[in-house]
C-alpha cells in the first residue's frame, strides 16, 4: 500500500510468474474516508515527492496520520515512524499571510529516530489494516512454540497421523457454532504456514468458554482426525497464549523513557511505570489483533 501507487480498492498487478500480485487498497485502513483518498489521487499528477505536497493537495492531517500509521509513505523514503514525525511537523506550518515561511519545526534540531523492529511493524500493520505482508505474527514466536512441542498448521495438515495427540496454536480467525450442530463449535486458526480447523464439543466449550471467545492466539491439544483431504483436531484442552504476542513489541515498550511530570514534582509517578511493561505489551497486542469473527 502506497500513496503513489494504491487506489481505494484492491488492484491486480501485472502477472509475475504463475500468479498475479494484489496491491492493497486504502479501504483496508481503519477509519480513513474515501473522500480523502479521492482528494489524494486527484492531486497526484506525476507522483508525490513529499508529504507536504500531499497536504497541499487538500488531504487532511488526520488522514495523513492514518496513512502514516498504515506505512503508506515508503515511495517517499519514510517508514511509519518517520512519516508520523513528518506529519506532526506539518501541523504548525504557517498559513494565509505567512504561507511559505518556515515553521518552528523546521528550525528544531533534527532527531535520529530509532528504527522499528520487524515485529513492531507487524503489530502496527495489524492494528491499522488488519493484516501484514511483512511477516506473520506467529513466526516470531515459532522457536518458543517448538520448545513446547506445538506443531505448525502445515505439519498438522500434511504430516501428522490420524488419531495422534497433537498441540497446535494460531491466531483465531473464525468461530462458528451452528444451531443445528448440537452445541459443537468449529474454529479456524492460522499461523505462518497455513490454517487448521478445530472441533470443540459443547461440554468442552463451556469449560473453556473464556479461552475460546477471548484468545487472540489460541493453543489447543487434541486428537487429529483425517478423512482424505479433510483434517480436524478434536479439541480436549484450550490455552490462551495471547501474551506471547507481546514479544513482538517488547523492545519498544521496555525502552520507553522514565520521566517525571515536572522537575519540581519529585513525588510524581514516573511515566510509563504506571503500567508495567508486560501489561502495556498485553494491551497493545489485544488492541492490534482482532479476536476472530463469530458466526452462527
UniProtKB/TrEMBL annotation:
The UniProt GO MF terms for this protein read: 3'-5' exonuclease activity; nucleic acid binding
Every OB domain range: 166-239
Q: SUPFAM superfamilies recorded for this chain?
A: Nucleic acid-binding proteins
Quick one: a GO biological-process term for this protein? DNA replication
Domain DNA polymerase helix-hairpin-helix motif residues, every copy: 2-83
- Which InterPro entries does the UniProt entry name for this protein? DnaE2/DnaE/PolC, DNAPol_HHH, NA-bd_OB-fold, NA-bd_OB_tRNA
Q: Which family does it belong to?
A: Belongs to the DNA polymerase type-C family. DnaE2 subfamily.
| Name listed for the protein in its UniProt record | Error-prone DNA polymerase
Report the source organism.
Pedobacter psychrotolerans
Amino acid at each position: 500500500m502506497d500513496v503513489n501507487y494504491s487506489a481505494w480498492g484492491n488492484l491486480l498487478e501485472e502477472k509475475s510468474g504463475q500468479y498475479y500480485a494484489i496491491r492493497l487498497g486504502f479501504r483496508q485502513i481503519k477509519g480513513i474516508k474515501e473522500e480523502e483518498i479521492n482528494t489524494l489521487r486527484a492531486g497526484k499528477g506525476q507522483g508525490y515527492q513529499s508529504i507536504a505536497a500531499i497536504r497541499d493537495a487538500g488531504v487532511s492531517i488526520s488522514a495523513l496520520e492514518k496513512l502514516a500509521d498504515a506505512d503508506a509513505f515508503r515511495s517517499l523514503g519514510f517508514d511509519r515512524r518517520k512519516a508520523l514525525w513528518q506529519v506532526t511537523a506539518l501541523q504548525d506550518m504557517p498559513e494565509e499571510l505567512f504561507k511559505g515561511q518556515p515553521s518552528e519545526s523546521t528550525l528544531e534540531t533534527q532527531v535520529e529516530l530509532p528504527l522499528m523492529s520487524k515485529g513492531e511493524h507487524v503489530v502496527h500493520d495489524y492494528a491499522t489494516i488488519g493484516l501484514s505482508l511483512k511477516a506473520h505474527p506467529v513466526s516470531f514466536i515459532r522457536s518458543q512454540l517448538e520448545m513446547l512441542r506445538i506443531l505448525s498448521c502445515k505439519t498438522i495438515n500434511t504430516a501428522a497421523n490420524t488419531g495422534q495427540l497433537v498441540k497446535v496454536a494460531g491466531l483465531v480467525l473464525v468461530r462458528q457454532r451452528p444451531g443445528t450442530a448440537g452445541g459443537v463449535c468449529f474454529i479456524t486458526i492460522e499461523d505462518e504456514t497455513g490454517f487448521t480447523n478445530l472441533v470443540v464439543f459443547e461440554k468442552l466449550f463451556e469449560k473453556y468458554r473464556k479461552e475460546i471467545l477471548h484468545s487472540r492466539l489460541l493453543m489447543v491439544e487434541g486428537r487429529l482426525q483425517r478423512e482424505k483431504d479433510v483434517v480436524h483436531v478434536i479439541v480436549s484442552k484450550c490455552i490462551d497464549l495471547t501474551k506471547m504476542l507481546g514479544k513482538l513489541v517488547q523492545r519498544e515498550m521496555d525502552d520507553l523513557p522514565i520521566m517525571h511530570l515536572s522537575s519540581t514534582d519529585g513525588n510524581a509517578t514516573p511515566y510509563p511505570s504506571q503500567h508495567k511493561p508486560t501489561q502495556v505489551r498485553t494491551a497493545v497486542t489485544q488492541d492490534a489483533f482482532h479476536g476472530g469473527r463469530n458466526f452462527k
